[in-house]
């Protein structure tokens, strides 16, 4: 094989793209709503808590994470699908979320974002007076 300007030419003449860029993955997410909060659950397997960032800016929530895998002392990798990568996902939040009370926890590769609703957004019963 010969290497030419970032492409690997196979003997049959087809080109294979060679890249050192890390893949960016969109994490699978579920969103739940209760009367008190919106809960976002995102899968970010293999991500350490110090490699995870959650930002809220002008109603847009961004999740960014980096999974870094180094060679293991278990021998040479023969087949693998679990690689270093970046995770990225954005959400537009509805009005009425109390941004000062948003909390996040990461356990066993699952990020849980608790986004409490403000009192104005919570459902309430309106009493009806007879009269």
Tell me the series of helices and strands, N- to C-terminal: EEEEEEEEEEE
The CATH level-2 architecture of the domain at 19-70 and 82-116 is identified as Sandwich
Which residue ranges are poorly predicted, with pLDDT under 50 across at least 5 consecutive positions? 1-19
Please tell me how large the radius of gyration is: 23 Å
> What is the tally of helical segments?
0
Share in helix: under 10%
Can you give keywords for this protein?
131 residues; mainly beta; Immunoglobulin-like; 4-stranded mixed sheet; 4-stranded antiparallel sheet; 11 strands
In words, what does this structure look like?
With 131 residues, this protein is mainly β. The protein has a domain at 19-70 and 82-116: Immunoglobulin-like (Sandwich), CATH 2.60.40. Helix content is 0%, strand content 44%. It has strands at 2-4, 7-9, 15-17, 24-25, 29-33, 37-43, 52-57, 60-67, 85-92, 103-107, 110-116. β5 and β6 (37-43) form a beta hairpin. The radius of gyration is 23 Å and the shape is elongated. It starts with a strand and ends in a 15-residue tail after the last strand.
List the helices and strands and how they pair.
Blueprint: E1 2-4, E2 7-9, E3 15-17, E4 24-25, E5 29-33, E6 37-43, E7 52-57, E8 60-67, E9 85-92, E10 103-107, E11 110-116
Characterize this entry briefly.
By secondary structure, the protein is mostly beta strands. The protein has strands at 2-4, 7-9, 15-17, 24-25, 29-33, 37-43, 52-57, 60-67, 85-92, 103-107, 110-116. The protein is elongated, with a radius of gyration of 23 Å.
């Amino acid at each position: 094989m010969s290497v030419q300007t970032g492409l690997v030419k196979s003997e049959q003449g087809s080109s294979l793209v060679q890249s050192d860029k890390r893949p960016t993955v969109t994490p699978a997410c579920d969103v739940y709503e209760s009367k008190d909060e919106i809960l976002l659950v995102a899968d970010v397997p293999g991500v350490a808590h110090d490699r995870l960032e959650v930002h809220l800016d002008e109603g847009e929530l961004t999740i960014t994470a980096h999974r870094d895998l180094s060679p293991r002392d278990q021998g040479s990798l023969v087949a693998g699908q679990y690689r270093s990568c970046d995770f990225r996902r954005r959400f537009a939040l509805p009005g009425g979320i109390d941004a000062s009370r948003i909390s996040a926890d990461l356990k066993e590769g699952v990020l849980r974002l608790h986004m409490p609703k403000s009192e104005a957004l919570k459902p309430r019963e309106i009493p009806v007076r007879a009269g």
